[in-house]
């Protein structure tokens, strides 16, 4: 949904340089068409298989994005009370919400039960006891799945790989049956599912298939023992292309490759994709402030920084950086850096890229997931606005923060 026409970069039918001039920079811009197309790719690929696509709110929790997905029929995967609040505020259906996470508080469990969420993905026996007690107080039954740790290697960045036994997540698959058995002693819990999630930004789906086989086997054995297991939650979605020319695995093909084994299980299948729905749908627009040279090293100093997009600094993540208007100059090899006072404040290093000059606009690509949500006010920088493009029009769905916003609620 981002492409050049002549020399100008467009999001859908909107020329991004015009948008950047009006909305200012830095600014996050999302394509609604791209978000919906990726959501539908998951939803439609399941075809007649009973399923629920629960968008992982953590990837981009903007109300407008959640609203778009809620209207399209999505469920939601949440990891906090705040995310549930957002889903409800955006018009999402709480009965399609699954609550994941290793450290749910009593207040969050209470809030989720009060709003009738679908189920909890539980990560410890102690958490099951808490949910049972809270459900008893409300006089309701709570559906749960145990998030099992299948001990497979997702081959992704170590900070976002979760499925090995050394990680904090889930319950070792070998111990899961004993925990389901223990849960029988909790009268207010219903063992409805089995869940797993092995990591994020997975470009080779084979470890996911390996995990699927393991959890299918567990679900079948639990059903044979009389547990009312009716769903299997396969966790997050596929990785996306961050490098030019990189190919992400196609969503449809991946889901279709699961059909046969899933159909035989008779279970409702849930997935919790985040990155693959919103990642390619977003860019971070920025303006070149200065060019400078230290020795032989070229720097392009821009007005977006690590507080706006922390992924390069935190994970050494690669995001393509392209001009909103192509110029005829030969490419340059440079570091793209922001105004924050840290050496780690870079968006790209030693990058061969467009020879952008002060005043030129650039787009940091594939920034729709884990971009704005991980932004901060570090260096007392107001957070960037978010803009949603729909065809030939766009609207600001979150305004740029002001200096007053920076100090709201504080006292001297
Ligand atoms: N379900 C669970 C339980 C998760 O922990 C995650 C992501 C997802 C679903 C969504 O996974 P996805 O479809 O987006 O791959 N901040 C990091 C990513 C952290 C991912 C954490 N969990 C980044 O910027 O790459």
Structure description:
The protein is α/β, with parallel strands linked by helices and 412 residues long. The chain folds into two domains: 2-29 and 280-407, Lyase, Ornithine Decarboxylase, Chain A, domain 1 (Beta Barrel); 101-271, TIM Barrel (Alpha-Beta Barrel), CATH 3.20.20. It is built from twelve helices and 21 strands. Strands 4, 14, 15, 16, 17, 18, 19, 20 and 21 form a nine-stranded mixed sheet that branches. The protein has an eight-stranded parallel beta barrel with strand order 5-6-7-8-9-11-12-13, surrounded by five helices. Strand 7 (97-99), helix 5 (106-114) and strand 8 form a beta-alpha-beta unit. Helix 2 (32-46) packs parallel to helix 9 (251-265) and helix 5 (106-114) packs across helix 6. The longest helix is centred in the middle third of the chain and has 19 residues, at 206-224. The relative contact order is 0.16. The model has no long low-confidence stretch (mean pLDDT 96). Ligand LLP binds at residues 56, 59, 77, 100, 160, 197, 200-201, 235-237, 272-276, 311, 315, 370.
Strand content: 25-35%
Q: How many discrete structural domains?
A: 2
| Total number of strands | 21
CA-based gyration radius:
23 Å
CATH evolutionary superfamily of the largest domain: Alanine racemase
How would you sum up the global shape?
A: globular
The CATH topology name of the largest domain reads: TIM Barrel
Taking pLDDT < 50 over at least 5 consecutive residues as the criterion, the unreliable ranges are: none
The end-to-end span amounts to 47 Å
Ligand roster:
ligand LLP
Fraction of residues in H or I helices:
25-40%
CATH class descriptor of the largest domain: Alpha Beta
